[in-house]
Design a protein that fits this description.
Layout lengths: L5 E7 L12 E7 L8 E9 L4 H5 L19 E8 L9 E4 L6 E4 L4 E4 L16 H14 L6 E5 L4 H12 L3 E6 L2 H9 L5 E4 L5 H8 L4 E6 L3 H8 L2 E9 L18 H6 L3 E4 L9 H14 L6 E5 L7 H7 L5 E5 L5
Parallel strand pairs: 8-9, 8-11, 9-10, 11-12, 12-13, 14-15
Antiparallel strand pairs: 1-2, 3-4, 3-6, 3-15, 4-5, 5-7
Length: 340
């Protein structure tokens, strides 16, 4: 049965410092073992690329154990059950979860996040707007940002998979939204496709002045995906009782040595503001709640998304570095050949 199939796996070849490059990975092939009782076989159709994957392979302290050298790269993927000796999973079921950068995953179900039940929507959405990106936006903004009608919400990496969702969810809550993105194309995307009220290019030499102009009444919620100089500037404009959501630190190349810079404490103290980090794993028990609401908004047209799909597992090794270069627009996915 499965022993006749060859599985291509992207494994970590060497430990990176900072942003992992293509040569930190290699693609290896192996035979798929026969299923044991309680196991099933998933043929992955799409592999996900996340900014957080940088932290998953670095030796620096992170919220999860580092991927081991020689191990399959930890990654979300979505696919179809093609063989099963597990009572809860049948051939034909669509699933998504931490299935790794590989063609196939033999599993007892532990890495599976959920069965994908939204058959009327593309499977790719389970890795993006209906996956970790959308769920992150939903809970981080709603639970930590606590947007109220009339608030000004500023979002960094606003054209990305998470930031674009945050902006739209803030609009649905009746807020004024200001997006920060890199380059004229991404600024236009924020305005034209994702409906931000204003968008600013952080590469603009007059960025501080543009930000002040876009936030004449200050900032009530800041959704921070970058850290660094962008966030330093936004913090200058926070209002009394502002809420700052720390979701990413994309601008920091390495945490060894630990970077230094302007301190936020005085801003937080003077404005009685709150800054809190967010990890999506803290809301696993409410995952279906978020997916159900996000799917309803996608169906109604109230929530839009952008995907960037490349074909072939050979694109996986260099995809994290490409993500941090800022060249991509939308959720980055890798499509695998069907029928392998």
């Amino acid at each position: 049965m499965s022993g006749q199939r060859v599985n291509r796996r992207v494994v970590l070849k060497s430990r990176p410092v900072g942003i992992p490059q293509a040569d930190h990975f290699e693609i290896v092939e192996s035979q798929i073992p026969e299923l044991e009782p309680g196991e099933f076989l998933v043929r992955n159709e799409y592999l996900s690329v996340e900014p957080a994957m940088r932290g998953w392979v670095n030796a620096a302290a992170n919220y999860s154990d580092a991927v081991g050298v020689g191990e399959v790269m930890r990654a979300f993927a979505a696919g179809e059950v093609v063989a099963s000796r597990h009572g809860a999973y049948a051939v034909g079921d669509k699933v998504m979860g931490m299935l790794g950068w590989q063609d196939y995953c033999v599993t007892n179900g532990d890495p599976v996040r959920r069965k994908v039940l939204e058959a009327d929507l593309p499977l790719t959405l389970s890795l993006g707007i209906l996956g970790i990106n959308g769920v992150t936006a939903y809970f981080a903004l709603g639970e930590i940002g606590q947007p109220r009608a009339g608030d000004t919400v500023v979002v960094s990496t606003a054209a990305g998979a998470v930031g674009s969702a945050v902006g739209q969810l803030a609009k649905l809550a009746g807020c004024r939204t200001v997006g920060i993105a890199g380059g004229a194309d991404k600024v236009r995307l924020c305005m034209d496709e994702f409906g931000f009220d204003a968008a600013i290019d952080y590469k603009d030499p007059n960025f501080p002045e543009r930000l002040a102009e876009a936030c004449p009444s200050g900032v009530d919620v800041y959704y921070d995906n970058t850290s660094g100089a962008i966030s330093d500037e936004v913090l200058r404009h926070i209002n009394k009782f502002a809420r700052i959501v720390i979701c990413g630190t994309a601008s920091v190349q390495s945490w060894d040595p630990w970077p230094t810079g302007p301190r936020p404490e005085r801003h937080l103290l003077n404005k009685s503001a709150r800054m809190q980090g967010f990890l999506v794993w803290d809301y696993e028990h409410r995952y279906e709640e978020a997916v159900s609401q996000l799917a309803a908004w996608v169906r109604s047209g109230d929530l839009r998304y952008r995907e960037e799909i490349v074909d072939g597992i050979e694109h996986a090794p260099g995809s994290i570095a490409e993500l941090y270069s800022g060249a991509n627009i939308g959720k980055r996915l890798i499509r695998l050949e069907s029928g392998r």
